[in-house]
Write a structure and sequence with these properties.
The complex is a heterodimer of chains A (365) and B (520). By secondary structure, chain A is an alpha+beta fold. Chain A is built from twelve helices and 17 strands. Helices cover 34% and strands 28% of the residues of chain A. In chain A, the strands form four sheets. Chain A has a seven-stranded antiparallel β-sheet. Chain B has 520 residues and is α/β, with parallel strands linked by helices. Chain B contains 15 helices and 23 strands. Chain B has a nine-stranded mixed β-sheet with strand order 3-2-1-4-9-10-21-23-22. In chain B, strands 11, 12, 13, 16, 19 and 20 form a six-stranded mixed β-sheet that branches. In chain B, strands 6-5-7-8 form a four-stranded parallel β-sheet, with helices on both faces. Chain B is globular, with a radius of gyration of 24 Å. Classes of the chains: A alpha+beta (365), B alpha/beta (520). Chains A and B meet through helix 2, helix 3 and strand 11 of A and helix 12 of B.
């Protein structure tokens, strides 16, 4: 067990932006919510997954809807509480702790704000180890854990409890209700036992986010380059260093899709990297070989500060390091690759782990 | 013949020009920016009038681009006591006003903060009824305790109804004199950023008032009865009345003025502008005769805001930049500068500090001061330092471009004499006449604009008709602000569909601008 104060929250927000691999929504407003909650209610208790009893009842919390709505109509802070309480009443069980559904972006921060407000522990675990755009893209789904029953709640006091036949229906009905409720709601979802969480969750993810954030902060203070430390913390692999020379993006069916090209600098001079994204960075390749593809993580980092660059922030002239990070082994199963591998996003390549692609590249040179 | 004066305050120098009605430069002058800013402005004003020899009654307009408001915020000095009212509860309580703002600024501005029921949804429905009762109570509570009010309602860019009603109630109790800043008139979607901008606006109302009064007075003392305008961020003008209501819009007008001046002096509508001052070099992008605006949140005094600012890349290189060399042949360029003390501190002027200007003189690239005083410097080393300076600028140019294609580069600012006639990434390097006072010229030739930014539902009228409606609103705003209807053009239009929302909700932003109407 550990306590999280303001500095830890600041660091986690930076790590969350990095594991957001370019998407996941800006953690900024979630960070402010967490900071305010800590200011008012004191530090947050963070539990390691091993500290959660097997029979404890745990539930994920976060937001769904349009991030553009949330940056204007910020939450009241009580909707997540009502969502949790409604679920407790319905199931007749007391909630032991909450946890983030995804490590990347905005949703990584919201359980922290809720936890401080309710004096409820947060578990150091998530269901993605990164950010993905859809509710079923979680490791819980791979293990057959249902999102239902789940609750969405708005700031006005409206609460909707859903019990759907599968996770896809859950996504569909909740999205429709979200619009009526004002475009952004808070959810309590994927109720499960401590035992389920240990088996299906991705462990120590908040700790990793905090370490990444701290490394970037300290490097900035010391005028050092944080890239090497980030690679060490994430078991990451440097894929490329270059300058963005072209960005082509379009918005389709609510998602931002596109391609960026980077011209190599230093030891990569003469090479060109192609980066494909849909909300998140999903595929990186050079002319003759694949370097990294989803579900492995691709992070684009400012070459000077090491700070992550989002897909919206990509623009001509930016100097960036592109790194690949192995995803959690659960994503590397046939089921995991079917759920969020290259095929699901419409890329015509076969998934291979980033470290194997890198080894091939080295022998090929 | 009528004349106009343009004055622009920079970090190192305050510049002034006097133009005739055909916008030809009759006189120009430059003097150090003073700590109180105003003294430097008045000195410049007197000097440019005297130099021009123009009859004072023929000077009809005076345009001022100043840093008074920026300085007040950055230094946390002379700020108003602000009453902060947010309309949006029960939404937004999880992030209170000023939560992300640095502690010292928050301490000053968060003395009277209220969050009350009301506000709207993205589609214009109410979140809750406006709590009018509470507003009457607040009015009593803040009476005599605040100088200015800032009101922000959730989704006011979609519906300004609650902000207007709230302002009505507060005026009813507190009188018409108390300045009230309304967020929908200042920023766009993004509650915290718009609210911060509105609060900062309310905080500098008195600074703006005294600046305006001082400038009008200084003109009178010179015997000039000119109509006074303030320059704003987007390269257009505000009347004095408007400027004291929306002083926050003057922030960052300086770099904008340089970019607009560069465009006017060269006749180019699309180019990169490199403005080399005494301390920094700002690189901006000219698109369709206006500066490209930044798409990211901009921090002012550490507070995140979201109103439009010119997209700039600022690097620590100017005429007074300090160069340090080591025995082993290594060197550093800046980031510190001797600033306006260059004429005392620079080696070529008999001073003791090796500056960027000295390097250029030593290599014979610039003739200034006494070249003998730098003849002892190691020429090879100076070549390398100069190369380093040029590379800094070239990299900045490259970062600001939108593609790899070479583009025209316009050099302005007093320090631009340091730079060579060829730059990597430039299709041509243009040095216009009067390059040293391009910013003051930009101030003098500013246009009048009107702008609208709002979320529309395209399902109601269709895209074309909605865009036409938005354009008409922008044009009407420009006419209201004093633009000549015959000269108004749409200078910027942007529509962004909002993801995950029905009804084709789209944020549309349109800006229209025209020249100053003759009778304005």
């Amino acid at each position: 067990m550990r306590r999280l104060g303001k500095q830890e929250i600041e660091d986690i927000a930076v790590g969350a932006a990095l594991l957001g691999t370019g998407g996941g929504g800006d953690p900024y407003i979630g960070k402010l919510m967490a900071l305010q909650a800590v200011e008012e209610h004191g530090p947050i208790t963070l539990l390691s997954v091993d500290e959660v009893p097997d029979d404890a009842f745990v539930v994920s919390s976060g937001m769904m809807g349009a991030p553009t709505v949330m940056v204007e109509k910020a939450p009241s802070g009580s909707e997540a509480k009502r969502a949790l309480q409604t679920l407790e009443e319905y199931l007749g069980k007391q909630i032991y702790a909450t946890f983030p559904i995804e490590a990347g972006g905005l949703n990584s921060m919201l359980p922290l704000a809720l936890a401080a407000k309710l004096q409820l522990p947060v578990v150091d675990v998530d269901g993605m180890g990164r950010a993905f755009p859809e509710l079923q893209m979680v490791t819980f789904h791979l293990d057959g854990i249902a999102a239902s029953p789940f609750v969405i709640a708005d700031e006005k006091g409206n609460v909707v409890l859903l019990n759907t036949i599968d996770n896809l229906w859950g996504e569909r009905i909740a999205r429709a209700a979200t619009i009526q409720m004002g475009g952004s709601v808070m959810f309590a979802i994927y109720p499960m036992t401590g035992k389920n969480l240990k088996q299906s969750g991705i462990h120590h993810i908040l700790q990793l986010e905090e370490e990444i954030g701290r490394a970037i902060r300290l490097a900035k203070a010391n005028g050092a380059n944080p890239i090497a430390e980030i690679l060490r913390l994430t078991n990451g692999i440097e894929l490329f260093c270059g300058k963005v020379v072209d960005v082509n993006r379009k918005t389709e069916t609510g998602f931002t899709r596109g391609t960026a090209r980077l011209a190599g600098l230093a030891e990569y001079k003469g090479e060109e990297l192609e980066l494909r994204f849909q909300n998140e960075h999903l595929l990186a390749r050079t002319k003759d070989r694949l370097l990294c593809v989803t579900p492995d993580l691709i992070a684009v980092l400012d070459a000077e500060t090491g700070l992550p660059i989002t897909t919206e922030g990509l623009r001509y002239g930016a100097r960036a390091f592109v790194i690949g990070i192995p995803c959690h082994p659960k994503w590397r199963t046939p089921e995991g690759i079917a759920t969020c591998g290259p095929g699901y996003f419409g890329y015509d390549v076969t998934y291979e782990p980033v470290e194997i692609l890198a080894a091939k590249g080295r022998s090929g040179r | 013949m009528s004349y106009r004066i343009g004055i622009d305050v920079g970090g190192t120098h305050t510049d002034a020009v006097l133009l005739d009605s055909a916008y030809r430069v009759v006189a120009e002058t430059k003097s150090p920016t003073t700590e109180d800013v105003s003294t430097g402005i008045y000195r410049c004003l007197r000097e440019v009038i005297t130099r021009s020899g123009v009859a004072r009654e023929q000077i009809k307009y005076a345009m001022l681009g100043t840093t008074h408001c920026t300085n007040a915020i950055v230094e946390r000095k002379r700020l108003n006591r602000v009453g902060v009212i947010r309309i949006g509860a029960p939404a937004t309580l999880a992030v209170k006003p000023l939560i992300g703002v640095p502690d010292d600024l928050r301490q000053q501005l968060a003395q009277h903060v209220y969050v009350i029921r009301g506000g709207h949804e993205f589609d214009g429905r109410q979140i809750a009824e406006l709590d009018e009762q509470r507003l009457y109570e607040i009015a009593q509570e803040v009476k005599g305790k605040v100088d200015s009010l800032a009101i922000t309602s959730v989704f006011s860019p979609v519906s300004k109804e609650h902000e207007l009603r709230a302002a009505g109630i507060l005026r009813e109790v507190l009188g018409e004199q108390l300045p009230i800043s309304l967020s929908h008139e200042i920023g766009s979607v993004g509650l915290l950023e718009r609210e911060n901008a509105t609060i900062l606006n309310a905080a500098v109302v008195d600074v703006a008032k005294s600046t305006a009064a001082g400038f009008v007075n200084a003109l009178k003392e010179e015997g000039v009865e000119a109509k006074v305008f303030f320059c704003q961020n987007d390269g257009t003008l505000m009347s004095v009345d408007y400027a004291v209501k929306y002083p926050i819009l003057t922030i960052a007008c300086g770099p904008t003025n340089s970019i607009r001046g560069a465009s006017y002096l060269t006749g180019l509508a699309d180019a990169l502008v490199v403005d080399v001052g005494g301390t920094t070099t700002d690189v901006g992008v000219l698109i369709n005769s206006f500066p490209r605006e930044s798409s990211l949140a901009v921090e002012i005094g550490g507070a995140r805001t979201n109103f439009r600012m010119p997209d700039l890349l600022s690097i620590g290189l100017g005429g007074g930049t300090v160069i340090r060399t080591q025995a082993d042949g290594s060197f550093t360029i800046g980031p510190d500068s001797v600033g306006y003390r260059l004429p005392q501190r620079g080696l070529v002027f008999g001073g003791d500090t090796l500056t960027a200007t000295d390097v250029a003189v030593a290599l014979g690239k610039v003739r200034l001061g006494d070249p003998q005083k730098v003849s002892h410097l190691d020429r090879t080393l100076m070549e390398r330092v100069y190369q380093g300076m040029v590379e800094m600028v070239e990299e900045a140019i490259d970062r600001m471009k939108t593609s790899g294609d070479p583009v025209p580069v316009i050099l302005v600012g007093g320090g631009s004499i340091l730079l060579p006639d060829r730059l990597r990434g430039a299709s041509q390097v243009v040095r216009p006449d009067h390059f040293g006072v391009a910013n003051a010229i930009g101030a003098a030739i500013s246009q009048i604009s009107g702008q609208i930014e709002r979320v529309f539902s395209l399902d109601e009228l269709g895209r074309e008709k909605t865009l036409d409606l938005a354009k008409q609103i922008a044009v009407d705003e420009a006419i209201k602000a004093g633009a000549d209807p015959a000269t108004i053009e749409i200078v910027d239009i942007e529509d962004v569909p909002l993801a995950y929302l029905p009804g084709n909700a789209t944020r549309i932003r349109v800006k229209a601008a025209g020249t100053l109407a003759k009778d304005a």
